[in-house]
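Supplementary material to the annual report.
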Amino acid sequence: MPSTRVDRRQFLTHVAWGTAGLTVASGVRPSRAVAATYPDWIAASTKPPKRGGALARASAWDPPVIDPRLTQSVGLFQFAGLVCNRLVRHPFADEASGPGDLALKGDLAESWQGSADARIWTFKLRKGVKWQNVAPLNGRELTAADIKYCYEGYAKEGVQTFTFQEIEGIETPDKHTVRIHLKTPNTLFPHNLAEPVAVIFPKEVLEEDGDLKKRMIGTGPFTLKEHTRKVRVVLARNPDYFDAGRPYVDQYTILSTPDAATRLAAFRTGQSDIIWLASLSEVETLRKTNPNAIVQAYHNTLTPFGVALAQDRPPFNDVRVRRAISMAVDRQKQLDTVFEGHGILGWGVPYIYYQDKAPTAKDLGPWWQYKPAEAKKLLAEAGHPNGFQTTLFYYEYFPQMTSQVQLVQQDLKRNLNVDVKITKLDYTSYYGRYVEGKWDGMSWGFQSGHAVGLDERTYHYMHSKSTKNFFRVNDTVVDELTTKLRQTSDRAEQRKLAGKIVEREYDQVLRMWMPYSNGFLVVQPHVRNAAAGAMRRTDAYGSPTIARIWLDK
Amino acid sequence: MHKYVIRRLLLAVPVLLLSSLIVFGLMRVMPGDALIALMGEGGNVGAKELAKLRNDLGLDRPYHEQYAIWVWQMVTFSPGHSIFTNEPIGVSLKKAIPVTLELAALAMILGLVIAIPVGVVSATRQDTAPDYVGRIVAVSGLSFPDFWLATLVITFAAIWFHWIPPIGYASFWESPWQNLQQFLLPAAVLGFRLSAATMRMTRSTVLEVLREDYVRTAWAKGLAGRIVVYKHALKNALIPVVTIVGGQLGTLLAGTVIVETIFALPGMGRLTVEAILYRDYPVVQTNVMLVAATLVTINLVVDLTYAWLDPRIRYR
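Predicted assembly:
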């Protein structure tokens, strides 16, 4: 009779095989076919909305300050757009035809019109809009003078000066008319006023307090009931909101939750109604405990991150070097491995402004294809047959970024013998060095995440004279095209010009974009009308859409 | 005794002065600009605006002036305002200190409640199953990092029990039940780690004391085992344990940074880390000095405790 006894060696062998098997099994990633099962848009509910209930969200962000003149931080604008309004806005989830619907709608303005030369913009305000019934405003009516005061305040100091210093003067011919004179023509100016950061604040608070750091009062659907730093922001329904009947929920609470695992646990246990997840595997794991959660597979229209090259000095002032570097990076590998296939290859101007579908690898042009041999040849032609040494500094905005940086380093070493010395910095060191713009070599650069409009994404970020031109683009063709774009009112012509700007950017490798995650918006099964629009994540800069959410329970 | 205390307090002055110089100097040599961070990611940071802000905040003065002003502020207990939020630092501390104190106190209590009985059992039943279990638990406590354990606890609590502590801090006076729910798990995580070192120290010192002559005499007198262990052995074994516990308070304060972040508690740890990230000089400097002063005080209290535990000890 054979012995059934297992000796130590056999036992360890079995354990090893078992462990290996489990590791392989647990490491199998969900296929991309699963990602496709989640819709990229959640249409508005056809049921009549119900009033009442409370909505909550565990949030990674905390507002550094609540003064909209001093920051464009998502921590602030995850709720500032719910307390305050803008003159114009983009469509909410329940009125948009899809994620790419960016038609401007009136917010505080009822209508608006530009002069033939696009230098004078006249806005007619809604009548009867009241400030929230909180001292010192006490529910007084909003007037044109308020808009003038606010925009002049933005122009005077803070992070929005570039946008508002474009204004030459503001007239208020009557209580409900604002006439804005620009220094130079800009057909896209109303789009700048629709940016989520361009919220209208009251003069009384600024004059009484000297700043806007202590109180936030607006005309929006919610009043700021509580803001306890690092704990919570509580918004209560504004019963006097001009859009009668809205918002639907009585209270919206944002819970400061810096840890990702805790945010996930909060969603699992129902303490949070909305969560943003970066990868498909996270969604699949969550759905094991919350199978009825509603998932929107988000599709980014641009990436905010890429490799910024010091293109104003050698070796990156040579376009051949930039092209060689770009061709030596395997973007598809980053997309497949780091973002599990749910991401974009990377481009900086939202594609919806110049074409209907997301760009394919081919659309990005010859210098964006992974061609190591050609890259090497080009670099040799540029006088660097043996590569060179350079540096790259970055701040880890999200965990996958470090993997991306390392993959780029490997690609450049293997394909071009370019030695990249990586320095990982904390946020403040990175930010200071990056925006100061005096660095050499490379940086993992960013462009602001808040902007929706075409003007912001082109002129503001690419014109050589712009203070937001962090990638140090200095190209006369781009300067001409971005300026011309602002002078063009015809939509079709605007699309053509935007396309030309992008083509020029690709051709000259002015900003070397890198792949970026698409992410998933996940909401509890009873949450309606929460879909995230392009560049308007419901949990972030697209938060005003929360005024349209209702709870089906 | 009084002379000893006064001498120790006087000795604390150069320690605190040195700490203040180190933290002030480190904050100034660290790369990164608080004001650029303050301006956010908008990018419209003009040189003129930066200069004005620097002037408003007194950051354009020579370092020795800035240092002198800050030391004076500390001495007069008016540490100024946060660069970042403009909130008075005293107000921030008033909110953060009770959170960290509560967490640290609960963790310490839980840690001691576990560590001392288990350590004693481990020592009195050396090389038996309870001893092995106690030692395994102790080694685990030392080996598992706080962030790992805390993440695991919160994740599995959500999956298995569909429950996690309510997010959004409530003070004990506002809502005692919610407050206890919020603190129990983080205190347990921190306490587990604390208990490990204390348990090992208790075990080894009790083992040592149990071999002393006077303990043998106590056994010979026919005293009950409980009396011998707890009255005669344990009290004498506690001096090294008290030293360890005192020293662990520093570790505990460091551990709260991670645990406060994971359990979303707005304590000193989160306040300090955020201030470091944003180069909020006045907040970092004040918090570090507060921690330094706390550690100096704890060390003094620990030293004074020795005399209570062992009457043979005299201070001169």
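The domain at 8-19+43-297+519-551 of chain A is CATH 3.40.190.10 (D-Maltodextrin-Binding Protein; domain 2).
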